[in-house]
């Protein structure tokens, strides 16, 4: 199906109204107003649409940012309507965004994502080679959309360097360096007692399908959020960053690899 999909920059108000419909279909919330996205677009922003024929089935929305020292591109939202997910379109959109942003002179793209969403983590860290640079506990506060409702909105902030390619480290899982383990009943348990900042790398497991877990057992999902949140905080505080995700879709668990330079 992806062979029939075209990806292009959005430039008109009509296209942004189409984007609103996709946004509402993905998150079931009121979409961003067109006057806002149109203004962002005309002030350094990059907005991409994915089309199946004339029908928009996905979008990627980013706007210009500045940290007081350098400009960067803030990639805020990406989504696809049902029937077009898990087909590699996210990677294609991000690579298109990479090329356009670099040609415009941006040195960096940054965005946030839920660290317990394994598909997003695998795309961001393993496929794109970006870095989970910062941990943001409950970053957005309480959210009511169907993907985030009921949980703290913890996020990793991704940094994607456009000036040089950062290779994804070649690592294999070492169970002696797991900072979270699973109890006999399948609950996550902190293993921070073994944490040693002299160790160059550590592994942290996460659920393979966090959304399914939330639907089946919200109590367990909250447990994962709390236990991994404490471990993530300890790692980032000690100067580690998230650099890869080891993922096997036939297993119930994926594994972050954290290292520091």
Describe the structure.
This is GNAT family N-acetyltransferase. Pfam families: Acetyltransf_1. Keywords: Transferase. Residues 5-148 form the N-acetyltransferase domain. This protein folds into 2 domains: 2-161, Gcn5-related N-acetyltransferase (GNAT) (Aminopeptidase, 3-Layer(aba) Sandwich); 175-259, no CATH class. Helices cover 29% and strands 30% of the residues. The protein has helices spanning 13-27, 34-41, 89-104, 118-127, 210-216, 218-237, and strands spanning 5-9, 46-52, 55-66, 71-80, 108-113, 131-136, 155-161, 180-182, 188-190, 201-207, 241-246, 253-259. The chain is globular and about 55 Å long.
CATH superfamily of the largest domain: Gcn5-related N-acetyltransferase (GNAT)
The CATH topology label of the largest domain is: Aminopeptidase
Q: Tell me, briefly, the overall form.
A: globular
The first-to-last residue Cα distance is 41 Å
Strand order of the largest sheet: 1-2-3-4-5-7-6
Structural class: alpha+beta
What is the count of β-strands? 12
- Which percent range describes the beta-strand content? 25-35%
| Count of helical regions | 6
**How is the biggest beta sheet arranged?**
7 strands, mixed
Mean pLDDT figure: 94
Into which percent range does the helicity of residues fall? 25-40%
- Computed CA radius of gyration, to the nearest angstrom: 19 Å
pLDDT under 50 segments (min length 5)?
none
The sequence of SSEs as H and E is EHHEEEHEHEEEEEHHEE
The CATH architecture of the largest domain can be named as 3-Layer(aba) Sandwich
CATH class wording of the largest domain: Alpha Beta
């Amino acid at each position: 199906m992806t062979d029939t999909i075209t990806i292009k920059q959005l430039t008109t108000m009509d296209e942004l109204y189409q984007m609103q419909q996709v946004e509402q279909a993905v998150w079931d919330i009121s979409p961003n107003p067109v006057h806002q996205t149109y203004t962002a677009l005309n002030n350094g922003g990059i907005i991409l649409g994915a089309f199946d024929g004339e029908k928009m089935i996905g979008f990627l929305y980013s706007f210009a940012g500045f940290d007081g020292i350098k400009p960067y591109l803030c990639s805020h939202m990406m989504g696809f309507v049902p029937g077009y997910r898990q087909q590699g379109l996210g990677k294609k959109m991000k690579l298109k965004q990479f090329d356009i942003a670099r040609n415009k002179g941006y040195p960096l793209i940054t965005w946030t994502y839920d660290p317990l969403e394994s598909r997003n983590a695998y795309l961001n860290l393993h496929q794109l080679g970006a870095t989970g640079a910062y941990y943001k506990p409950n970053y957005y506060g309480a959210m009511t959309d169907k993907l985030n409702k009921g949980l703290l909105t913890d996020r990793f902030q991704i940094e994607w360097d456009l000036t040089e390619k950062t290779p994804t480290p070649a690592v294999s899982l070492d169970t002696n360096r797991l900072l979270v383990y699973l109890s006999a009943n399948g609950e996550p348990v902190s293993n921070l007692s073994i944490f040693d900042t002299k160790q160059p790398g550590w592994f942290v497991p996460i659920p393979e399908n966090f959304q399914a877990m939330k639907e089946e057992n919200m109590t367990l999902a909250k447990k994962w959020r709390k236990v991994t949140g404490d471990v993530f905080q300890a790692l980032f505080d000690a100067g580690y960053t998230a650099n890869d995700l080891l993922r096997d879709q036939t297993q119930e668990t994926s594994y972050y690899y954290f290292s520091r330079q």
